[in-house]
Amino acid sequence: MGQKKGQGSSKKAGAKTTIKSKLWYLFSRLTLLLVIAAVAWVAWLDIKVLGEFSGKKWSVPARVYARPMELYPGATISSEMLAKELAILGYRRVSEPSRAGQFKVSGDNIHLISRPFRFWDGDESARELKVRFEGGRIAALFDPVSRSNTSLARLDPALIGSIYPSHGEDRILVRLDQVPEALISALIATEDRRFYDHWGVDPKSIGRAFVANVRAGGYAQGGSTITQQLVKNFFLDSRRTLVRKANEAVMALLLELHFSKEEILEAYLNEIYFGQDGARSIHGFGLAAWYWFQTPLEELSLHEIALLVGMVKGPSYYNPRRAPERALNRRNTVLELMADTSPAWAQEVEEAKAQSIDIVERSVIGTSRHPAFIQLVRQQLQRDYRSADLESEGLRIYTTFDPLVQRAAEHSVKTRLKALEQERNLAVGSLQAAAVFTTTETAEVLAVVGGRDPRADGFNRALAAKRPIGSLVKPAVVAAALAGPEGFTLASRVNDEQVTVKLDDGREWTPKNYSERYWGEIPLYDILVRSLNAATVDLGMTIGVPAVIAQLRQLGLAHDPEPYPSLLLGALELSPLEVASLYQPISAGGYQRDLSAIREVRDAVGAPLQRYPLDVEQAMSTPVAALLRWNLQQTVERGSARALGWLLPEVSGLAGKTGTTNDLRDGWFAGFGGNMLGVVWVGRDDNKSAGLTGASGALRVWAEAMSQVALEPIVASLPSGAEWHAVNPDTGALADGCANTTRVPFLSNRLPLEEDSCMQKDSPGLLKRIFNWFE
Amino acid sequence: MNNKLATPLSRFKSVVILLMVFGLSACVNFGGPQGQAGHQQNPWADLPPYEWPPFQQSYAEDLNLGPAPRGLLEEADNHYEGGRMGASAAALERALRLAPRSPVLWYRLAGLRAAQGDYAAANRLSEKANSLVTAASGERVGYWLDWLNQWLLDQLRPTQTGHQF
């Protein structure tokens, strides 16, 4: 039995063994498969983690910077202007500057510590400066550290916008060594106390979170480590499923395996989501600092840091603009946690808790405050860069933008149009305007206003609205006459009488003067001074329309207009930007440069990519440009633009021309001083009559804008090749040394042939003057 | 069992490693800003660059420049001597923004372009400089400008054939 039993049991045992071994076999195979699957899964996650993380290249939109403000003794910068610039830059006004990005205003002095910045031609380090002002200029720059005067200092350029795709992530990358210690402390205290001790997943903190949640009777605390949060942001969607949690944990472990704590922390700081701003999403502490406080991350105070750290938990729920109370409470919680974990902060935490929330009303970057200018930058960059690169490669674009001129121009458009509508009983909001301001000699675009609402990122009238330019074309007619073979001088007599021009198609054209009065024989310079249509057509038909077209082309007109006589009165549709490019050479002694909005481009790490060098080309002879400039100065002094005289009494010698089209549809003003040129258009989008002439609308906008910035007078000296002479205003005859004459500039080789009877004998002889013509 | 496992896993490992290598290399190839502008063909490229005249400190006082642009002019010369042409041009342009009607600065920029071999630009810029010389400034800085102008003309002379100078 025993045997049997033994046999039976051995049989049984044999069967058992077979089953057991089969089961074991199955189990081992299954385990093997599971292990293979697990390993494959881990390996796959590892590839994902490594692939994504080691090659991580954030998509960073191109950043656009304004021109840096140059401070030097003699610069036409008032203390108000510097204070405004510093505010735009996000410098803090404090009682005593102690670190970069702070300033103090006291009477006629501004004490500041500038931020370091890397320029194309070298680094500008942070420096302490005491700036003294006198009569709207910088009188002295004093460096209190070296206890010496300094001749030149450059502020960092303001960040004015970015070129990001219509939907996408926006961020400013920061390196860990740029990040304030307090931010790291606050972040670790709040989000992951054992960050430096765990391997990516922290069972203790999960346990603690669990207990806290049970106690709170709901979700109060997350158990996710910083590494897990980073994984979640990087690779996964926000669903809270078990599989996702498991993936997250494994990937966190893998991340910790391959990368250092510092690398993980840096990635986290740049990745973390801070909410939505229209179509773009705000990522990373670098951009968050600008977005909420308009300041670099390095310059944030403790209470600001705590506010940002508090938002990590729920950027929308703790949004300080929408829920300031909630954000404040959350901030204080962060501060308390911070004091809890490291008592060293206790003192500062108490001070920080007393601070109120102090965020900027609206961010200056990203959703650009200056879409019209950014559009011009984009247009100019598109010649050299692909859109995708601009939107993702983190390029840095250094432009010619002057925030002070832009503000003045925007403000002027807004207030003047409103006032004009009120004064003239026009429908509210019916008027529109566009403006472009540039430098004269260097042809750099300082400001662009695309319409009444400067924030609207829509139709940019300054670049895209092509309107007939009316009388703004007249200087080109006069220039063509002065340079042409017919021998016209500014004192030549021309006819201002109603003339009828026979057109090629047999029709007749009888242009009229605006005033419908005709002045008969007038000096040529009166064409511009009084903006006389009939005389312009008389002169233009004498020199020929093609000569005027050639002149316009030389001044930079990009296309050949139709050679109709109506061109002489401005039947030529141009945008304000195009008009500015035509006037720029006149303001710069005849030298033309394509209006430029960009100085240089650098890559994401600041390495130089491209410069847009200063180069000029002669568009008209310098003496002719000087004559034309004088003529336009006369237009301001006593002609159709004389309103400038009382609108801007403090700046002498301005030059300009008004323009008005049929039925008062378009009002223009193009004018310049010594350093700046501006073109303003005022009209209506529906092209109906705006009821304004160039002088009553556009000129006023121009004047108000220029009254707020450092417009300089024109230095009136004639270049070689031009000279002053007295003429008899009634005949145009040379009258040097006579009484009751008018002083007019002439080309040295083209003086009037007639001499007034009163002329002294020692004047240059007629023969010599005739001879001069052939020189 | 360990032995049984070892084989497929080690096989798998190599696949993983291969995949990882591919993955990584794909990432490495990802970046790099593109879109630098192609340089324009420079018809004077085959001409040798010319010597840059030394900054004449003794004339610096007579240049009718404020201390700020004058400092930048000296900075531009330092960059030039260190072979940093881009920085030199940037410093000169910066000076020109402060004093855009100074013939000396335009001359200096023209000289830099000539030294870089861009004679067409050098010619245009020196014309601009000439146009800014007035009777008053001419007297003041006449000698210095004459000298620099003559130097530029010497540089440009060899290129006169076939080009519009």
Overall residue-averaged pLDDT value of chain A: 89
Radius of gyration of chain B: 28 Å
Give the mean pLDDT of chain B: 63
Proportion of helical residues of chain A: 25-40%
The CATH superfamily title of one domain in chain B: Tetratricopeptide repeat domain
Instruction: Describe the global form of chain B.
Output: globular
Low-confidence runs of at least 5 consecutive residues of chain A: none
**What is the tally of helical segments of chain A?**
24
CATH architecture call of one domain in chain B: Alpha Horseshoe
Fraction of residues in H or I helices of chain B: 55-70%
Fraction of residues in β-strands of chain A: 15-25%
Distance between the termini of chain A: 144 Å
Summarize the structure.
The complex is a heterodimer of chains A (775) and B (165). Chain A is α+β, with helices and mostly antiparallel strands and 775 residues long. Chain A is built from 24 helices and 33 strands.
List keywords for this structure.
heterodimer, A: 775 residues, alpha+beta, Penicillin-binding protein 1b fold, Penicillin binding protein transpeptidase fold, six-stranded mixed sheet, five-stranded mixed sheet, 24 helices, 33 strands, 18% strand, elongated, B: 165 residues, mainly alpha, Serine Threonine Protein Phosphatase 5, Tetratricopeptide repeat, globular, disordered N terminus, disordered C terminus
